[in-house]
Amino acid sequence: MSIDVIFLGLDGVLFDTEALHLAACNTAFAQAGLSLRWTLPALRAAAATHGYARAVGAALVCEPLARDKARVAELFAAKHAHFQQAVARQALKPSPAALALIEDARAAGCKLAVLSDLPAPVSAQLLQQCFGDDVNSLFAVVAGGVNFDGPAGIGPHARALNAMGLQPAASIAIDAAKPSLRAAEAAGLWTVSVAPYGAEVLRPQQFITFDALRELRTSPFTANPQEEQELAA
Fold first, then answer.
1. What is the distance between the alpha carbons of residues 217 and 6, in angstroms, rounded to a whole number?
2. What confidence tens digit (pLDDT) does each residue in 26-52 have?
3. Helix H or strand E encompassing 140
4. What's this model's pTM, rounded to 2 decimal places?
5. Distance between CA atoms of 136 and 41, rounded to whole angstroms?
6. CA dihedral of 26, 128, 116, 218, whole degrees rounded to 10
């Protein structure tokens, strides 16, 4: 069984962005006049439900400013701005495992795509720093500022697959954030989590190779996600 396309996240898949997200969140909290300061475990707990790009949303649950839409927007904007400034100052090196996966996938004729809830400018900046002018030749689809909370039928994965003329049954999404993984599952894709939290952890340096993905898809013990959805219906 072939793999037609692999969707790759930016945070925790192509790049280790945790330290920059943590610093950006804490700077944004201070700028907003909040006493809250996160440690790495707190960031990971927030990213588990909100994703890294929108992790600050987890801090608003018990904060009075959650009812002030203008201040909430300012907090998110500040966090994104500080993160992008950090990326501009410090070019991040891509994961060697991710680069090896990209090389093997391309050699096998598999397409690659990037969907990220990071704002489009910083998504483009990260990819440009890493791949330069080869971005458009390496990736069939690149989209930043993606909303993973929309309806499954018209979500980002479905739109990307439609643009490429491919089906979800032969598609895999690799990410570290639950919002994007849930969206991919809802669209009928196979999913692999590389989150640094939770009970079931797959770490890219150890497990995420192209051969391992092919074994995942051909394993008799792994059900096709589309078949599971059809049975549930």
1. 12
2. 999 999 888 889 999 999 888 888 889
3. none
4. 0.85
5. 35
6. -130
